[in-house]
C-alpha cells in the first residue's frame, strides 16, 4: 500500500490486554448489582466479559441491561471505572508483547500516531501516564470528549487535518467501520476482543501487533 503517514490507533484489545483489568472490574460491578437485587448471582467466563470491551460505557449498559434503573446503572459504571483505574495503578494491566517495539518503529518512520479510543478521558490520561504513551502518540482522543460519538464520525471530522495516506488499526467493528465509512484502509486485529465477523470488512488482518510492520 502507499506510504502511510498517519495511523488512527485503537487501544483496548489492539495495544493493551485490557481484559486483565476489566474482568475484575466487571465482576465487582456485577456483584454490586446482585447485592442491589437487580441481577441473579452467576459466574462469567472471559468471552462473555470481553465482548463489551471496545464499547462506550453507555452502549455497553444499554445492551447488557437496558432496563436497569439509571441511578444503579451509573453507580455500577463508576465501580467499573474506579476498579479499572485501581488495577492499572497496581500494575495489573499490560501492553501486548511487541507493542512498544511497533510504536517506536512507526514513529522512527515519521508516521503520526493518533490514539482513538471509546473511553473516558480519565482512563485515557491514566494509560497515557502509566505506559508513557506520549512518547509515541502525537494526539490523544477519548470519545468522551466528543460526547461518545462513533469513531467514524470523529475521523470524518478530523481526517483532513492529517497527512495522507491514512490508516485505521483496531480490533472491533467500530474501528473497521471508521475506516470503511471514510474510505480509509483498516487493519483488523484478530488477537483482540472482536469476532471474525466484525473484522470481515477490514483490508488487512493481523494475528499479533508485530505484524503491523509487515503491512506498513
What would you call the shape?
Answer: globular
Number of strand segments: 6
Number of discrete domains: 2
Computed CA radius of gyration, to the nearest angstrom: 17 Å
Task: Report the order of strands and helices.
Answer: EHHHHHEHEHEHEEH
Span of the ends, CA to CA: 7 Å
- Judged by helices, strands and strand pairing, the structural class is alpha/beta
Note poorly predicted spans.
Answer: none
What strand line-up does the widest sheet have? 3-2-1-4-5-6
CATH superfamily of the largest domain: HAD superfamily/HAD-like
**Binned strand content:** 5-15%
CATH topology heading of the largest domain: Rossmann fold
Mean pLDDT: 96
The level of helicity is: 40-55%
Instruction: Tell me the CATH architecture of the largest domain.
Output: 3-Layer(aba) Sandwich
Structure description:
The model has no long low-confidence stretch (mean pLDDT 96). Helix 1 packs antiparallel against helix 4 (70-89) and helix 4 (70-89) runs parallel beside helix 6. It is built from nine helices and six strands. It has two domains: 6-17 and 95-215, Rossmann fold; 19-89. Strands 3-2-1-4-5-6 form a six-stranded parallel beta sheet, with helices on both faces. It starts with 5 loop residues before the first strand and ends with a helix. By secondary structure, the chain is an alpha/beta fold.
Amino acid at each position: 500500500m502507499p506510504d502511510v503517514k498517519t495511523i488512527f490507533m485503537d487501544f483496548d484489545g489492539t495495544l493493551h490486554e485490557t481484559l486483565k483489568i476489566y474482568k475484575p472490574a466487571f465482576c465487582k460491578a456485577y456483584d454490586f448489582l446482585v447485592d442491589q437485587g437487580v441481577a441473579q448471582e452467576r459466574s462469567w467466563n472471559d468471552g462473555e466479559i470481553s465482548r463489551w470491551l471496545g464499547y462506550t460505557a453507555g452502549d455497553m449498559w444499554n445492551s447488557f441491561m437496558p432496563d436497569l434503573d439509571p441511578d444503579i446503572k451509573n453507580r455500577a459504571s463508576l465501580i467499573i471505572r474506579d476498579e479499572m483505574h485501581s488495577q492499572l495503578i497496581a500494575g495489573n494491566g499490560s501492553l501486548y508483547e511487541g507493542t512498544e517495539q511497533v510504536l517506536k518503529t512507526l514513529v522512527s518512520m515519521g508516521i503520526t500516531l493518533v490514539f482513538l479510543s471509546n473511553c473516558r478521558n480519565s482512563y485515557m490520561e491514566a494509560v497515557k501516564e502509566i505506559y508513557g504513551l506520549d512518547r509515541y502518540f502525537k494526539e490523544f482522543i477519548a470519545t468522551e470528549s466528543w460526547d461518545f460519538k462513533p469513531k467514524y464520525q470523529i475521523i470524518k471530522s478530523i481526517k483532513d487535518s492529517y497527512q495522507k495516506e491514512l490508516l485505521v488499526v483496531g480490533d472491533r467493528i467500530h474501528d473497521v467501520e471508521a475506516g470503511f465509512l471514510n474510505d480509509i484502509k483498516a487493519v483488523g486485529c484478530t488477537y483482540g476482543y472482536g469476532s471474525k465477523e466484525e473484522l470481515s470488512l477490514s483490508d488487512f488482518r493481523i494475528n499479533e501487533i508485530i505484524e503491523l510492520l509487515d503491512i506498513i
